[in-house]
Amino acid sequence: MKKQEFFANIAGKVLALAAVVMVMGVALTSCSKDDDPQESKLGENQISVNAKVRDIKPTLHYYGNANDPSEFVFGFTTDEGYDELGTNRISGGISFDKELLGKAVDLKNPSLPQNTSMHFWIHANRAGLELSYMTFGDQVEIRYGDKQITDTSLLKSGSILVSHSQGKGYSVVLNLTMIDGTSIELKAFVKESDAIQRT
Q1: How does strand 117-124 pair with strand 129-136?
Q2: Contact status, residue 154 vs residue 99, Cβ threshold 8 Å
Q3: What is the mean pLDDT of residues 137-155?
Q4: Looking at residue 182, what is its pLDDT?
Q5: Cα-flanking dihedrals φ and ψ of residue 155, to 5°?
Q6: 15: number of CA atoms within 13 Å, CB side?
Q7: In sequence order, which residues have a C-beta less than 8 Å from that of residue 10 and are 6 or more positions away?
Q8: Rounded to whole angstroms, how far apart are CA atoms 183 and 162?
Q9: How far apart are CA 61 and CA 198, in angstroms?
Q10: pTM value?
């Protein structure tokens, strides 16, 4: 009888402990979700400038042999969207050497392979945004509004990744934040069959 009472008591404690652990697990999961940085809600072929999202129409041009291109130029634009304040159009592009495919470029501290280069630019008339970022190896030139510098002091953080999925297409992911708080985020995809050869 005492033995049965002992095991019943132990079983009750185990169940109580399991309930406590389960509740703590739910609470910790909830807290960790709250503490996690917000994931990007940007969809494919969209750009966000200062958290305002627009759809874009991407294009991709390449130079050289179709099976072994030497250079790429990715371009994008939004619809014109004219109003009394002028155009809402956002346009820009990224030109890069093939060696950068699949390699994330840290725009704050760039270190490209030798003799490779990348150029990113964006024009957003309504937002008054004019930005050009060029890098060759570890050398940088940034034009931002009326400023022109040869370092990354105007940039808080940023990265660009252009990747290629054989038989499918090319994807571009860009995240950029300037020290004045201006933020740019872009996600795009161009089908391999839509890429245009240039000579």
Answers
A1: antiparallel
A2: no
A3: 92
A4: 93
A5: -105, 130
A6: 6
A7: none
A8: 19
A9: 6
A10: 0.73
* DSSP H helical ranges for the chain: 2-35
Could you tell me what percent of the chain has a pLDDT over 70?
74
Give me Rg for the CA atoms of the chain: 25
Tell me if 75 sits within 8 A of 99, measured CB to CB. no
Q: Specify the 3-state DSSP secondary structure of 193.
A: helix
Q: Report how far residue 16's alpha carbon sits from residue 55's, in angstroms, rounded to the nearest whole number.
A: 53
CA dihedral 94, 96, 100, 104 (to 10 degrees): -20
Across 5-32, average pLDDT: 39
Q: Do 189 and 164 touch, CB atoms closer than 8 A? A: no
Measured distance CA(61)–CA(73) in Å, rounded? 5
Q: What is the pLDDT of residues 100-125, one digit of tens each?
A: 999 999 999 988 888 899 999 998 86
Rounded CA-CA distance 89/93 in Å is 14
36-44: average pLDDT: 65
d(CA 62, CA 74): 9
Q: What does the pLDDT read at residue 41? A: 79
Q: Is residue 155 classed exposed, middle or buried when 0-12, 13-18 and 19+ CB atoms within 10 A define those classes?
A: buried
Give the three-state DSSP class for 169: strand
